[in-house]
Amino acid sequence: MTTLNGANGTSSSPALKVVIVGAGIGGLSAAIALRKEGHDVHIVEQSAFAHEAGAAIHLAPNANGVLRRLGIFAESFGANTMDKLVEYTFSGEQQRSLDLSESNKQWQHPWHLAHRIDLHNALKAAATNSIGNGSARLQTSSVVTGVDPASGTVTLKDGTHIQGDLIVGADGVHSITRKAVPGGNIRPFGAGKSAFRFLVPRKLAENDAVTQKFVQNDGELVIWYANDRRIVMYPTSNNTYLNFVCIHPDEETEEQSGENWDQAGDLNLLLKVYSNFDPAVLRLLSKAESGSIKIWKLLDMDIIPNLASERLALLGDAAHPFLPHQGQGAGVAIEDAAALAVVLPLGTRPDEVGERLKLYQDIRMERANRIQEHSRLAGRDRSEQVKIDMYGFTNFNFGHDEYDNA
Ligand code: FAD
To answer: Keyword Flavoprotein on this protein (predicted)?
Structure first.
């Protein structure tokens, strides 16, 4: 049994030396969970985190169940509980209105609508603050160029090597660690759709006689559907902002869509792509906060045959890039992170890591793939839609917290 010291040199417990590639939602969650076990965690992140990007993100009950256990309470950074769901046709006819306040009671944890930057900041603070006997080390502005699962070596662009008993590949949709698992030399592909994302200050919608009807209630998620495009709106940041995700066929915005999260989009193009929607909705769109419009291509990927190899485990988008139609990308990454910590308790010997990662793969593979498939179905055009519960309320027990019973 090894007796490595914790990151602060304060622990004498047997601990694994863990190197996490990527300090996104999944990587930071894994850092917190593995630190809580007492492992020695070093996170390597390419970004300097100088200009954070991102708009809102769903934290369904499955995500919140894990986050709460990690000490992260999304309501403390302005997340709204999703209480109501309203659907319209593109021309503004209301199709259904669901009060979720009763059905929410079936979940053990709330369904939150949060701002990604707030969530990211909370995770970063929790990962790098002292937990028990030491914090994780976060090394930013460091691009990882390769990993060796056999020796546990992570190589940086500047030629530095970092050695670990375990490498966690949490480097997102354009992962380079993915290539190091058998069958992982696959690339995400365009799903045929792009999305505009932006924020509208809620006050602007409230103060306009035409648009105020859309912001009568807190915690309301609204969708306007045409056959091949849709506009999704929900509140975030203590109801001070309305987050918009507008999804349409790729070819309509080919000149602007990119594969990066911070690709700037254009208001005129947005209004053109959705020009046949209800004029009141277009009026809402035109209130987009200056500079907040981003446009991104939705990416999908074939199922990867392995989530782990020797000392390397993949999690989150590196393992299974999610389409956004179920709001489960962050949630499944957070679940992955918790599962890793469950299979690698303090006292796990370095020579046991490979076997335990097989267990991790068994636990995560089927669930992640099923939720991913459900997200694909939920994103189909209206004319091709199969009869599913679009929000996973019945198909998946997002509220069931499997770790409660672990
Ligand atoms: P991510 O959260 O994407 O994190 C991956 C991390 O790995 C990033 O910090 C990245 O910089 C780092 N990384 C990548 N390659 C390397 C490398 N070679 N070396 C070192 N570090 C590397 N989802 C939404 O639903 N709404 C949003 O508004 C939204 N905004 C986003 C903004 C940004 C800047 C990013 C990175 C992601 C965003 N996402 C958003 C995606 C969402 O966070 C993920 O889909 C989901 O949370 C899964 O998390 P993940 O940790 O697997 O990946």
So the answer is: yes
